[in-house]
């Protein structure tokens, strides 16, 4: 059984640095999940593009890179990898979540089957150069995303690795809720080791089940749950969850397209299962938010109040400073 964490401060306000301060790199690419590696670099994937400068000659559906330094002076370095593929759009696997644990990179992939659905796991023991792909997939989920903690998963809340996903098989179709999965950190590749959040018991403790059909909602927003990124702010003792707001002005097949216009919500909680409170919400940000974003823990100040949002706006690896005020 997990133990409750101490009471945490409540985030009262989030303010963005001016739009003209946004740093954009890797133009022409999108979808950048991140994790903090054991070598102090951030690792990421990119989709449907040519990577960071100097760009590749061929366009990749899935490519890999490492991010060195601190914003605004960070730089991306492309990694040539056995995991890359040339498949554009739904024709190729894309990265939806990254996590390093004990020097091993773990990657959730979406568009894992030929129909553009399902989630698949892969892992690399040599910093993204070579990859092994799991033989199993989650047919129920299409956008699995790891909960990220500190460097090489330092500061993780317990011996489990946590994953969130919208509760649907396709990455371009919104769902009504998000779900939460966990697996022992030494059994991530073992499908039989996964448990699924069901509900909170009368004491506010999570109930887990090995039965995927028993899964319950960890966050509900009818018709508006799609891509997301989640990380832990250790200084504040809060989880920060960025969630895309699907763009309803687009046809169904393109509802996830918020590259150049659209909104999102940011929510915080003391535990991965909540309770979630609103930090920031907008239907239309002052710039395009992209399909996916997150706050990398490496880029959080020691007091947890200065953050940098990494997002895929304008088909670029975009980084914007944010400042929190707590009650």
Could you walk me through the main structural features you see in this protein, from its secondary elements to its overall organization?
With 327 residues, the chain is mainly beta. It has one domain (11-326): Neuraminidase, CATH 2.120.10. Helix content is 0%, strand content 44%. The chain contains no helices and 23 strands. The chain has strands spanning 11-16, 23-25, 34-36, 42-49, 60-68, 75-79, 94-101, 104-110, 119-124, 132-138, 145-148, 160-166, 175-184, 195-200, 206-209, 219-225, 228-233, 238-245, 263-269, 277-282, 293-294, 306-311, 317-326. The strands form 4 sheets. Strands 11, 12, 13, 14, 15, 16, 17, 18, 19 and 20 form a 10-stranded mixed beta sheet that branches. Strands 1, 2, 21, 22 and 23 form a 5-stranded antiparallel beta sheet that branches. Strands 3-4-5-6 form a 4-stranded antiparallel beta sheet, with no helix packed on it. Residues 1-6 and 249-253 have low confidence and may be disordered.
| C-alpha Rg (nearest Å) | 18 Å
Number of strands: 23
Relative helix content:
under 10%
What is the fold-level CATH name, i.e. the topology? Neuraminidase
Order of helices and strands: EEEEEEEEEEEEEEEEEEEEEEE
Please work out how many helical segments DSSP would assign. 0
Tell me the fraction of residues in β-strands, as a range. 35-45%
N/C terminus separation: 30 Å
> In the CATH classification, which architecture applies?
6 Propeller
Average pLDDT confidence is 92
CATH class group: Mainly Beta
The profile of the biggest β sheet is: 10 strands, mixed
- Summing up helix and strand content along with how strands pair, one would put the structural category as mainly beta
């Amino acid at each position: 059984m997990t133990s409750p964490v101490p009471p945490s401060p409540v985030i009262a306000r989030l303010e963005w640095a001016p739009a003209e301060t946004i740093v954009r790199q890797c133009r022409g690419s999108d979808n950048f999940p991140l994790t903090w590696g054991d070598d102090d670099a951030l690792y990421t994937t990119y989709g449907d593009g040519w990577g960071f400068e100097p760009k590749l000659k061929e366009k990749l559906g899935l490519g890999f890179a490492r991010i060195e330094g601190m914003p605004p002076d960070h730089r991306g370095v492309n990694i040539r990898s056995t995991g890359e593929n040339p498949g554009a759009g739904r024709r190729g696997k894309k990265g939806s979540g990254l996590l390093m644990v004990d020097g091993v990179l773990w990657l959730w992939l979406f568009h894992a089957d030929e129909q553009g659905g399902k989630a698949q796991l892969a892992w690399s023991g040599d910093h993204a150069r070579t990859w092994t792909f799991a033989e199993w997939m989650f047919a129920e989920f299409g956008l699995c995303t790891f909960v990220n903690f500190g460097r090489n998963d330092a500061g993780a809340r317990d011996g489990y690795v946590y994953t969130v996903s919208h509760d649907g098989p396709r990455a371009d179709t919104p769902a009504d809720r998000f779900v939460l999965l966990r697996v022992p950190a030494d059994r991530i590749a073992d499908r039989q080791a996964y448990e699924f959040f069901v509900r909170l018991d009368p004491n506010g403790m999570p109930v887990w089940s090995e039965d995927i059909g028993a899964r319950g909602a960890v966050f509900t927003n009818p018709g508006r749950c799609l891509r997301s990124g989640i990380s832990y702010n250790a200084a504040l003792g809060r989880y920060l969850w960025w969630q895309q707001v699907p763009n309803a002005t687009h046809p169904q097949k393109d509802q996830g397209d918020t590259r150049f216009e659209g909104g999102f919500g940011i929510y915080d909680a003391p535990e991965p299962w909540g309770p979630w409170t609103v930090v920031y919400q907008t239907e239309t940000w002052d710039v395009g938010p992209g399909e996916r974003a997150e706050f990398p823990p490496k880029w959080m100040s020691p007091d947890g109040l200065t953050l940098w949002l990494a997002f895929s706006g304008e088909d670029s690896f975009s980084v914007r400073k944010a400042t929190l005020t707590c009650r």
